[in-house]
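Give me the 3D structure for Rab-GAP TBC domain-containing protein.
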Amino acid sequence: MFCSQWFLTMFSYRFPLDVVFRIYDHVLANGIEAIFGFSIALLHKNEETLLKMKFDEILGFLNMKLFDIYKVEGEGDAPPTYKVDEFIRDAVSLRISSFMLDNYAHEYEELMRETHKNALEKDELRNTNRVLAAKVKELEENLSQISTEHIEILNELVKQRLRNEEMEEQLVRYKLLYAEAMHQNEDAGSSHRLSQATTNSAHRGSNRASSNRGSTT
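Predicted structure for Rab-GAP TBC domain-containing protein (217 residues):
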């Protein structure tokens, strides 16, 4: 984000011209890899200051005040000067070669592949989670429907049980009525037999009396 201006403009967008000329000389003499040395030297020189800042403060510092660490204020109205030789020595001392940059590039590519792999795994997990969530929702809907049907069946069972109990009560009542009717029928039969027996006994007594009168005559 902030380094793009350094690399695209070769530090010429804001740095003093005498510093920019020295940077160009070093890059032309040692190759484009040298620009990384200047970038790292600036960050390393300002490390303590950067670590004390917040993120929004860091961006402003990198764009405006990064090279102030090498500034020497002039006396009176004299313009400030810069410790260019010290800056060049700091950058050259880092010894950044194309081989090192290739290694860093391979490490970065490997890191990106691993990150991409993790991203793919996360996407697969998200898709799996989405499918499972849909299945869970479907199962919950089925469970809700089954619960509703179960409640309806229970209601029907309760109603049927109530009807059965009502029918059992009616059956008991009919049995009692039948038993009472049978008892009354038996009582009526007993009374009839007793009356019949009394009548027969009276007839036999009358016949016996008639026979006795006939014998006497």
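The radius of gyration is 59 Å. Let me know if you want a second pass.
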